[in-house]
């Protein structure tokens, strides 16, 4: 007898519940800001990716309203049929100029961008070598290709070189890495990775979801931070939903990359174009980050302060060097309990366990933003001190 849908759902949910991994997302009752309302409670928000405070920024909302009024609520079609509005192409030109690349194309999310770009580029006989801690969207995107897939040790140029030597090919060779790793907050050593890739004729592919808007001059990203933004053998992909405050993904790089993706990237070919209001908000975000250098300065000032104070309390932040600041609690139940206790103290910070992070390294991932005040951070630090001592994580 076949399994019924009801039986399958019950079994899967029971397994998650018994392992302590069943997720019940909290609900925001107001806009995502440094202080917001969650499930009816006023909290300091350390859970969002709103690095520059753009999710509710007046300049972005004004441009979104302007584009909404002029261009309507939707594009009405996929880009390749009748959905490419003039504002789509103008924003892509703006993004390429900002990223210092030959071209750029916008897709619907960072997740689908990895599926689309990797699927468009890679063929049978190609070789792709991927960091072991790369984002799930990279892993899923690579599963859809026929390229030979190898995994190198996290952020290890020597292991990358070993694999490139052992698995040479006449096809395309692609080295794939996150720019900033989303769970640990560390930065890929792009200077050494690109050097190794070039020695073996490989292209470097950087998912800069958490680096764009955070690293480099005016938030141009990790590739810019390491000085490779003009390089045709480096591809940048990422999301427009974190630091940039909107939604969508992008691919930027070689001048011909955009045209290939227009013709081959399946998420682009079979999805309706981005809504005009989203395009307007994103265009304003790129203008604003270049107009106001204090945004980046506040982001990094807050980051340095928060990390130093957490370490001073005795917490393990896992060597993070970016605004992503994990606090390690060990097993998932401890991280989830810490999250609950923090929420009781007015701090919204989410616990993460396996399979999002490895067993034994469950954590709360905190993200500091440019919008947080020193009072916000001090409130969070006091709550962390109380919770850490209550759970015997710190003394």
UniProtKB/TrEMBL annotation:
Alphabetical list of InterPro entries matching this protein: Aminotrans_II_pyridoxalP_BS, Aminotransferase_I/II_large, AON_synthase_class-II, AONS_Archaea/Firmicutes, PyrdxlP-dep_Trfase, PyrdxlP-dep_Trfase_major, PyrdxlP-dep_Trfase_small
Q: Keyword annotations for this protein?
A: Acyltransferase, Pyridoxal phosphate, Transferase
Which intervals hold domain Aminotransferase class I/classII large? 42-383
| Taxonomic superkingdom | Bacteria
Claim: Acyltransferase is one of the keywords in the record: yes
Q: What class of enzyme is it?
A: transferase
> What Pfam families does this protein's entry cite?
Aminotran_1_2 (PF00155)
> Which GO-annotated molecular functions does the record name?
acyltransferase activity
Q: Does the keyword Acyltransferase apply?
A: yes
What Enzyme Commission number does this protein have?
2.3.1.-
Q: What cofactor(s) does the depicted protein rely on?
A: pyridoxal 5'-phosphate
Signal peptide residue numbers: none
What the record says about family reads: Belongs to the class-II pyridoxal-phosphate-dependent aminotransferase family.
**Self-association state and partner proteins as the record states:** Homodimer.
Name of the molecule in the record: BioF/Kbl family PLP-dependent acyltransferase
Report the source organism: Deinococcus aquaticus
